[in-house]
Amino acid sequence: MNVADSRRVAAALEDLGYTPSSLAEEADVIVLNTCVVRQSAEDKAYGRLNSLKPIKKKRPETVINLMGCLVGVKGHEILRDRFPMVDVFSPPSDPGPLIAHLTQDESRAFEDAATSRRFAFMDGELTLPVEERGNLVSAFVPIVLGCSHACTYCIIPYKRGIERSRPVDDIVAEVRSLASQGVKEITLLGQIVDRYGKDIPDGPNLAQLIRLVHEVDGLERIRFLTSHPNWMTTELLDTVAELPKVMPHIEVPVQAGHDEVLANMKREYTADDYRHLVADIRTRIPNVSIATDIIVGFPGETDDQFQSTYNLLAELKMDVAHLARYSTRPGTVADRRMVDDVSDEKKWERFRALEELQEGIASEINARYQGETVDVLFEEKVRGRWRGRTPTNKLVFVETDDDLTGKLLPVMITWAGPWSMQGMFLTRPAGGAIPLTLGISSRETG
Ligand code: SAH
User: Which CATH class is domain 122-367?
Assistant: First the structure.
């Protein structure tokens, strides 16, 4: 979501005539986008913010924009007092305050009009090299902003505000515009993406929205995340199975495998509900891959309760498990009413146990790709190798001197590890022997 927010601000700045720079030191505008989902992310955000102090001191005219969840939607007086060097504070997903600041100051706009003005990005959790936006193959499109669910551990509803669905026309227009700029893949985003449209009377639901987006010419792949088990419908799963551009990959976090922990997290489903959902996903979508999120060390989690989570993952064998150690977030229900009583050491122990388990599971699943030919959408060259993804969202690297940006090509998998794969072309892609859109509707056996 933060990457999507950063791109939105970058696009707004480019509309104003600013050009991207990868050097904060030489930029006229520095945007620091921030994440606070865990303490480690928040610490990084403060670290980056402090690193901007010398730049602002040396060049006071530099506009510093602090954005995202560190600012939040509820006011930021404390931050304003603590960091007077920040010129503009922006809540998540909103380029408005920065654009207003830059355009209100007419003398600046006028004076600088002749010279070229530059902006740089810094991201609290991940750095976004601006150069990458030049050849954008895959783009994120937020469709649900905020969240109203209030899982007890989660700070996002407090920082991103209540759940709001974006109007369907805005979304379709944005997807059309992205496709016309050469974007081949879009990922529709929401904290609970399956709740799309619930706040719009007579509006489409997620499955119906996907059908509309599917019509957009030039677009080759559609993904969406993140799903909540209680809001996935059979209509949605059947739509994924039916429409060729919708990729067979589902991100649906379980968070824990013990019913008492799930209840304390206020997830509102049981481990058995999740089992049934996974079975249903796998029945309805052939060769689907499923990713989950798990938090270890939630307040009160016993060894036995953790063991239930371990066993559930071992039983369900997910393609990907995003693991996190519980980090108490100020203001959340878990922070106010529960004690963060699992030691750091225990959290690490549980984290490593799941990591090791998942490495085995992913190795086993991915080994089935060895020798198979799969359609890979290539994004960019990273350290000499082209990086792309299979329909199931597996990372594939291929070595070639050809420019593969945005190309969708069949690749034979020659090596498969737990976190990525390597492959080769059976025919040189530049030779013209392989049509670029060959087999986009076929799905790999796996
Ligand atoms: N709404 C989305 C994104 C939530 S944040 C979703 O449900 O996936 C992404 C992940 O961060 C969550 O799934 C959860 O596993 C993790 N997370 C959220 N709050 C956390 C906390 N306080 N401590 C540790 N991990 C947390």
Answer: alpha beta
Superfamily of domain 2-114: Methylthiotransferase, N-terminal domain (3.40.50.12160)
Structure tokens at 91: 């809540």
Query: What backbone torsions phi and psi does residue 311 show, to the nearest 5 degrees?
Result: -65, -40
pTM for the full model? Answer: 0.91
* For the chain, the helix, strand and coil percentages under 3-state DSSP, each to the nearest 5: 40, 20, 40
Work out which ligand 1 atom sits closest to the CA atom of 295: 15
Overall average pLDDT of the 264-281 stretch: 98
Strand 421-424, strand 408-416: pairing? antiparallel
For a ligand 1 pocket test, name from 1, 145, 293, 354 the mutation site with the most ligand atoms within 8 angstroms of its C-beta.
Answer: 293
d(CA 427, CA 347): 48
376 pairs with which residues across the strands?
A: 409
DSSP, residue by residue, 229-268: GGG--HHHHHHHHH-TTB-SEEE---B-SSHHHHHHTT--
Write out the two tokens for 260.
Answer: 């008492």
Helix (H) or strand (E) holding 31: strand 29-34
- Of ligand 1's listed atoms, the one at least distance from the Cα of 191 is 1
Sheet (strand 88-90) strand order = 19-20, 118-123, 29-34, 63-68, 88-90
Q: Does domain 369-446 have CATH number 2.40.50?
A: yes
- Tens of pLDDT, residue by residue over 355-391, are 999 999 999 999 999 999 999 999 999 899 999 999 9
- The dihedrals phi and psi of 125, each to the nearest 5 degrees, come to -105, -40
Token code pair at residue 362: 């992913």
d(CA 146, ligand 1 centre) in Å: 14
Where exactly are the structural domains of the chain?
2-114, 122-367, 369-446
Alpha-carbon torsion (11, 17, 23, 26), positive or negative? negative
Q: 302 CA distance to ligand 1 centroid (A)?
A: 20
pLDDT at 134 over 90: no
Helix/strand number for the chain, H first, E second: 15, 18
